[in-house]
Amino acid sequence: MPSVANEEPELPQADFLGTRFGLTPAEARLVALLFAGGSLRSSAEALGVKYETVRGHLKSVFQKTRTRRQAELVVTVFQALSEPNGGAEVAHSRRSRTRA
User: Which residues contact 34 (CB under 8 A, 6 or more apart)?
Assistant: First the structure.
């Protein structure tokens, strides 16, 4: 019987998130797990990496998504996944606010 622990979690939105926000595959998988309600510790375990590794990924994700907290990141991802245009307007308005 194959071990479930060794299988990579199936995260269909990870590809979209990687493309949408310019995330690495590892960062996109982390964001997908956090979006699904996982904690950093449970995400590290699911991905088979150390807690410090996911913390580093999260810091990079915050920069790329222009967010500062996990809750803000989840809202940003929700908006991107919910909008018919892939969230392009959200990204544009977020960039506009940071430039002003």
Answer: 40, 43, 58, 70, 73, 74
> Can you list the domains of the chain with their CATH numbers?
13-99 (1.10.10.10)
Tokens of 87: 């969230």
User: What is the rounded distance in angstroms from the CA atom of residue 48 to the CA atom of residue 30?
Assistant: 11
In tens, the pLDDT along 34-84 reads: 999 999 999 999 999 999 999 999 999 999 999 999 999 999 999 988 877
Pick from 29, 34, 24, 1: nearest CA to 14: 29
Residues 8, 18: Cα–Cα separation, whole Å: 16
What pTM, to 2 d.p., does this model score? Answer: 0.72
Fill in the amino acid letter for 98. T
